């Protein structure tokens, strides 16, 4: 290759070069064990079930460790994950092949094409048909079609079943295909530059070197090699991975930065690591030029991130496609079906059993009738010498065909049409349209709408779902005085227009310059931080912070006139009320999860040395000087801020003499170069200087919730929907947000992981205790919490693993593979863990039951897989309908696992939306989706199904009664054309419109009275009880429709002296009575009348009579004499007044019991919906009472300082190393009046 530019992105190497290629072996890193400790670390995100193979090597059973060591000598592990730069042939070598089907092998390295859809061109037809024939009705009609092909038993033409079946399968297949195409990811259509060629994402392979530009999405998991920033620094936005919008920095190795700046050098090394789903870990080694270099997560840019504030960067593809960490956390795409679908399947089985029993009874009747009567009647002789039993056998199959309309195939077509219409209503709802981002609500599936009306548990992400992930500086206390009323910043023309603060007196203090404490307060905010600043293309200042909190504090200082301008490795320059000052930075003591504070030691221009410190009140108050002022008043202000669920931070300072600093600096230098536990040594040195501090005040930051979140949660809670928050954030942050959104309150008893483990231990002991003599164990379990009151649960991912103990199946497979034998199972790995699967399952049941006793559950520091596991546990042990809502790629697994998945299409990307069933822009729209659209969809579908079953039972069972008068001969009671058109033309439109438009109360009342949602959760509107009510209603109606006309036709004479007592006239009268009855019945069922509904009922009746007179006319009989045989029957029958009287009597008797029952039930036993309907006008005119403000209550200490508890490690190491400082010769500091501007979103925090 030399110094020439490669002609293609994949230069081929010789075999010798391949043999000598530099590989990477995975570095084994032992996991921290919690054994011997009081419990798991709440600050650590546990990946207990997601270990990589290198970690599993260190987790072998102690009893087998010696044996394993020797066996590894004889059974070496398989080749690791090796990558060679720009050599695609290397990944296809035999040692990297794996079996995927029988003896067929393929490379274990995935391509970069991502398939999130269910079908492809080959699998669509068989897989979709397989899914559709899971519906019992479709299988039933397929069997029916086969029967109709047999001439001896068919009573209806075969095409009467084939055409509707093909139509149903085709429409459903097209709908499923459209739904699946919508899931196709947008990522594969982006373009980016590989080594010297432009290519689609899907064409990238492991080992390719790629070039990415500013604002590009990362196409795969990439090792950063070099960038246009100094020292290969690259800023990335990880919003699609973890929902956090603040920028994070990645750095290439020093060696690759220095030696790979030219394109000709970008193909001369290789790396390796094994794919896993851990977003917090990457461990590997690079072999290059006979040297080895360690790799970690700071060197990796993961798929789903986006390049920010970096013009160009180069990287090597390590994992592609399905092997990337974002896809490993995505979970499988599952087929989702509603509970009503499952119930309909069981009902179809029930109907089929009933049908078989009916047909068997009628077949037996036919055998007896033929033996006793038919065989002796000469006029019934058909020339076939068949026995009575054989004729009964043929009659059985004939009745199977005749009575097949008990399960009408049009039912499923109608259900799909209704679901499609309901999905369109969601898409068209302007009240779920987010105008700011031009984002409407989107129903991405059409099969789950009615399930929205049955939700019992909601699992929500926090960041970006409940919150905006935008921090706002709301209040502060300075020298004992609290500030925080809204004010105008028009006096400062450089202020950020989005910044709001509510106090005029604070501005007056700043502008006057008389309040020294206020000036010191904002000077501290502008100096004590790890925010980094650089200039964009327009020479405007752009801030990059390690967290949104820190960015909010520096922005607040900027708006009050203390502007952070620039920093070098050892200086910080700020503009203090238009006066530029440069301070020498002597030391920067960064945040970590144990310190919960940060400090900076500065030398002022006049030579003074001062330490500024900010941190949690729990750690600051321990380090205050006894002479410090304002401690008590600041404590009171902190209580007030905490009660308002604001994130607080204490600010203080300390003047240091030169001698004290010199002594401390020597200790600091020694600790910083320590080869032992460097972090512990540094913490001890920090403690020596961070003491005798003087209090200045405290800040209060609001983690802004999305609009309407508390109100939405309160309204859903009234609907008896339990909300669980599953987040990867710190425990204190999650708890603080729980109070902010009113999921938690001070009246609740909050339980934590250690409490849960103790309670589950007691439950296990109680379960193992034998029952007392003579007593039977109670069926109702004892409550987990003995004390009365409201409970809440806050548990971390580490405690979840301790309590639930998920078995390491991957560890077991690896052990079996490497040891070559089954390990002894007599001794468990951990005596404190469950011995068998039954005990493990009991632990899971205990946890779910205990959590469900709580009004609120917050799971924090959980992995994406743990989120999905929690959802699965509730689905499994509570048999509840679940909904998951999230906005980031870390929520995809949870969204796919739940019965309903909702994606928030916010600023965190489209990963969650692409995997969701429904999508909208704001959490508050969930209230309308469930309480309005979900409830309406459920009510409409239940009413539709109840009526549909009724009308088909009433229609079909007339054949049953008629068979007693036709010798059980499988003779149909109606004209065959009436049977064909009954469900298609005569009765379909009114019930379809009820399924689409009906509503018991309007949308405002649905949201005002959340209790109306309860029947859906209980499944009260459609169950086996309702099914049998529809059955008995259909039996009664069919009895009336057959026997009243039958009685009227006995020994009757028409006005013209003719006797229209023939079979055809009876069929016309019964058909007319049935059509009028079922159409008037749906009118009684309709709660919301429109012109369309009225027109549909009248039109259906008119169509019936119009078509009947047409097909009974002489003209059509002349054209098709064998097809239309009821010539003149309709006109002859319906001109008889007494037959009209018969029809009216039949319809009246059929409807009268229904009217009476409806009247009595709504009068004597009214439901909540009936009561709301009765007073609907009154409620619509009422205005909701304004909520009174809650009285002040002293906040909990645990809710304070959420910022300090949740803040991650900043950029201190990066700043101290000087690697982040762009060295631009002869570039002076910009004038803040000319360049000061906060750049939103794209390049800012």
TrEMBL record:
Catalytic reaction(s) noted: ATP + H2O + phospholipidSide 1 = ADP + phosphate + phospholipidSide 2
Residues at which Mg(2+) binds: 461, 463, 887, 891
Main location as per UniProt: membrane
Record has NAD as a keyword: no
Enzyme Commission number, as recorded: 7.6.2.1
Name this protein carries in UniProt: Phospholipid-transporting ATPase
Species of origin: Esox lucius
GO MF term set: ATP binding; ATP hydrolysis activity; ATPase-coupled intramembrane lipid transporter activity; magnesium ion binding
Membrane-spanning segments: 159-178, 346-370, 390-415, 944-965, 977-997, 1027-1051, 1063-1082, 1094-1120, 1140-1161
